[in-house]
Automatic annotation (TrEMBL):
<dbReference type="InterPro" id="IPR011032">
    <property type="entry name" value="GroES-like_sf"/>
</dbReference>
<dbReference type="InterPro" id="IPR013149">
    <property type="entry name" value="ADH-like_C"/>
</dbReference>
<protein>
    <recommendedName>
        <fullName>Enoyl-[acyl-carrier-protein] reductase, mitochondrial</fullName>
        <ecNumber>1.3.1.104</ecNumber>
    </recommendedName>
</protein>
<dbReference type="GO" id="GO:0005739">
    <property type="term" value="C:mitochondrion"/>
</dbReference>
<feature type="domain" description="Enoyl reductase (ER)">
    <location>
        <begin position="61"/>
        <end position="378"/>
    </location>
</feature>
<dbReference type="InterPro" id="IPR051034">
    <property type="entry name" value="Mito_Enoyl-ACP_Reductase"/>
</dbReference>
<dbReference type="InterPro" id="IPR020843">
    <property type="entry name" value="ER"/>
</dbReference>
<dbReference type="Pfam" id="PF08240">
    <property type="entry name" value="ADH_N"/>
</dbReference>
<keyword id="KW-0443">Lipid metabolism</keyword>
<dbReference type="InterPro" id="IPR036291">
    <property type="entry name" value="NAD(P)-bd_dom_sf"/>
</dbReference>
<comment type="similarity">
    <text>Belongs to the zinc-containing alcohol dehydrogenase family. Quinone oxidoreductase subfamily.</text>
</comment>
<keyword id="KW-0275">Fatty acid biosynthesis</keyword>
<keyword id="KW-0496">Mitochondrion</keyword>
<keyword id="KW-0276">Fatty acid metabolism</keyword>
<dbReference type="InterPro" id="IPR013154">
    <property type="entry name" value="ADH-like_N"/>
</dbReference>
<dbReference type="Pfam" id="PF00107">
    <property type="entry name" value="ADH_zinc_N"/>
</dbReference>
<keyword id="KW-0444">Lipid biosynthesis</keyword>
Length: 380
């Protein structure tokens, strides 16, 4: 299979992967990493398995488990064995072709996970065999058993934290801690309100906020197991767990007799849910949108802007990582803080179902089910 000719006008850096060449472009429109089959990445010595899609569509139909060539490790590369990789909503959207950044096809699925370094090139300085690493950014294709990656494309994490915590560290906890840190000056005793509270981000928000002494008002959709889910979120540190319908009821006034009005609202749903969050913000507070699961636009009441001077912001962890590409200290400090919380038992992985990579169809189907509160994690 031949490679297309790549124009020199692209300011790209080539990453030799086991069986692939990924041309990582970072133009202004934020195009994702490009994954192409290649026979030019070095001498083939063996094969590994990877979940590949050659066209966009229903993940259960377009994703296939295939053997791909394995090539030698270059001087500035590291050979890693993938240990575990979750299936996130953004992974599904990429395969469907609906995400804001899309890799060129064919592509390997997965943007998050944890791997163990097996071998390092002669010029690699920051990593050694046995280290655990996670991707610095999206687009590396983590749904595979092995890869050869550039040293700068991964960052180390402690190998004494739980496997599932490491595998799910790079997206949701990073999103949660940035939103809690970067938009409002939250002090112990302050409050945050969020929808999608049972999501991966929502669970991380609950735990990080609790560790900082910040109250959380957590909104979830009504469901048959509401009470059990509410109890589980409260065991994580949630101050209050309420149904979507409660946002529009007088009982909210009773809640705010014992809990301060929130300075910060975190919106992962959009639509009416986001509008209701806005109504409960204190004067001058911020609503940060990081997702839109309802696929409905956010409507902002004029009164909230005029009389409460609320701020409406957005956050995308992929953009934050790209903005801090040349500031390794910021990313390192964030991971160190999160890993410290994990080691203290104050931050745990979301409820996960471990699935062998060979059973990927089962995992993909489960990941797309509504009301699912368990994250599917591929075990390599």
């Amino acid at each position: 299979m031949g490679l297309p000719v790549l124009s020199a006008i692209f300011r790209s850096r080539v990453v030799c992967q086991r069986g692939f060449v990924a041309i990582l472009n970072c133009p202004k429109h934020m195009k994702a990493s490009v994954s192409l089959f290649s026979h030019s990445a070095g001498r083939c010595t063996q094969t590994c398995q990877a979940l590949i899609y050659r066209k966009h569509g229903d993940p259960s139909g377009v994703v296939k488990l295939e053997d791909v060539p394995v090539h030698q490790t270059g001087a500035k590369k590291v050979l890693v064995k993938l240990l575990a990789s979750p299936i996130n909503p953004s992974d599904i959207n990429m395969i469907q072709g609906t995400y804001s950044i899309l890799p060129d096809l064919p592509a390997i699925g997965g943007n998050e996970g944890v791997a163990q370094v097996i071998e390092v090139g002669s010029q690699v300085k920051s990593l050694k065999a046995g280290d655990w690493v996670i991707p610095r950014d999206a687009g590396l294709g983590t749904w595979r058993t092995e890869a050869v990656l550039a040293e700068d494309d991964v960052i180390s994490v402690p190998n004494d934290i739980p496997l599932l915590s490491a595998a799910t560290l790079g997206v949701n906890p990073c999103t949660a801690i940035r939103m809690l840190s970067d938009f409002e000056d939250l002090k112990p005793g302050d409050s945050v309100i969020q929808n999608a509270a049972n999501s991966g981000v929502g669970q991380a928000v609950i735990q990080i906020a609790a560790a900082r002494g910040i109250n959380t008002i957590n909104v979830i959709r009504d469901r048959p197991d509401f009470t059990q889910l509410s109890d589980r979120l409260k065991a994580m540190g949630a101050s209050h767990v309420i149904k979507e319908e409660s946002l529009r009821r007088p009982e909210m006034k009773e809640l705010f007799k014992t809990c301060s009005k929130p300075k910060l609202a975190l919106n992962g749903v959009g639509g009416k849910s986001a509008t209701e969050l806005l109504r409960h913000l204190q004067v001058g507070g911020s609503m940060v949108t990081y997702g839109g699961m309802s696929k409905q636009p956010v409507t902002i009441p004029v009164s909230a802007l005029i009389f409460k001077d609320v701020k409406v912001r957005g956050f995308w962890v992929t953009q934050w990582k790209k903005d801090h590409t040349h500031d390794g200290k910021a990313f390192r400090a964030m991971l160190d803080e999160l890993c410290s919380l994990i080691q203290q038992g104050k931050l745990t992985a979301p409820a996960c179902t471990e699935v062998r990579i060979q059973d990927y169809k089962k995992a993909l189907d489960a990941a797309m089910q509504p009301f699912s509160s368990r994250k599917q994690v591929l075990i390599m």
